[in-house]
Design a protein that fits this description.
By secondary structure, the protein is α+β, with helices and mostly antiparallel strands. A hairpin with a 2-residue loop joins β13 and β14. The chain is elongated and about 85 Å long.
């Protein structure tokens, strides 16, 4: 004869059921508090995307310490930062990838694609116009950060190789040194010396040259030079000189210009 210990369906639960419900309520209350403070993953992602795409007013003139955008003549997009998930708690040694984002409204940029040029030699002068062949830093100020990010470039090695297959990587970091210096060179080598220290006009294509290595900023549509992030699939920015040896001119992959607000 089969006998069971409990012959009827249990309707009343005894023991620690009340304690478990209280614990569940405490965990739910803790989760709601973290959501309100933005201390959960999806809230951090929303905050990062919101702050990265904040509209920024672009300067109508091309001068030092004015908001501008850097446009690729080859891909018709703008140089932008791939803001990491650690934002705004970015480590001092962290390197942020740089890509070419899709075309934007030139009258208004976003915080991740709005740069400023700073002269390497701080000279008191009335004319702050950018000139051909003059050395400068390219900086980016993201909202919520108390320090500027500098556009840097270093040749790839086993120690520096991270997310880019290019020969020379381009990234943003808090470090500022010889690897942060750039200059804009005239396209035609025969007239380069003649054009030095003449004013650069907005939307005038040139070669953004890395002073330390002599290579030019480049945008390559190769599938090996793309990065997938929360901002979509974008082409990585490298530092490599694409030359047409028959004409001795650099190819369109190396052509960039400084975009200002249209008049």
């Amino acid at each position: 004869m089969n006998r069971t210990i409990i012959s009827k369906k249990v309707t009343n639960r005894l023991g620690n059921w009340c304690e478990e419900s209280i614990l569940r309520e405490e965990k739910l209350r803790e989760l709601l508090g973290r959501v309100e403070q933005g201390d959960v993953e999806f809230k951090r992602q929303e905050h990062k995307m919101k702050m990265s795409n904040l509209p920024v007013s672009i300067s109508p003139s091309l001068n030092f310490k004015q908001n501008i955008m850097i446009k690729s003549a080859f891909l018709n997009g703008y140089v932008s930062a791939v803001v990491p998930d650690s934002y705004p708690h970015i480590k001092p040694t962290e390197r942020i990838p740089v890509t070419i984002s899709s075309a934007q409204d030139p009258r208004e940029g976003t915080s991740r694609s709005c740069f400023q040029l700073e002269s390497v030699f701080e000279v008191d002068r009335k004319n702050t116009a950018v000139r051909w062949g003059e050395k400068f830093y390219i900086t980016l100020q993201l909202p919520g950060l108390d320090r500027k990010l500098y556009l840097n470039s270093l040749p790839s090695s086993f120690a520096t190789h991270t997310w880019n297959n290019c020969l020379q990587t381009v990234y943003l970091s808090f470090e500022c040194g010889s690897e942060s210096m750039w200059k804009l060179d005239w396209i035609d080598l025969e007239y380069r010396m003649e054009m030095e220290y003449k004013e650069v006009l907005p939307y005038q294509n040139g070669l953004l040259t890395h002073v330390q290595t002599g290579n030019h900023l480049s945008s390559d549509p190769n599938v090996n030079h793309v990065i997938r992030s929360d901002f979509g699939v974008e082409n990585l920015v490298g530092c490599h000189s694409y030359r047409n040896f028959s004409t001795r001119l650099d190819k369109d992959e190396n052509l960039f210009c400084f975009a200002t607000k249209p008049q």
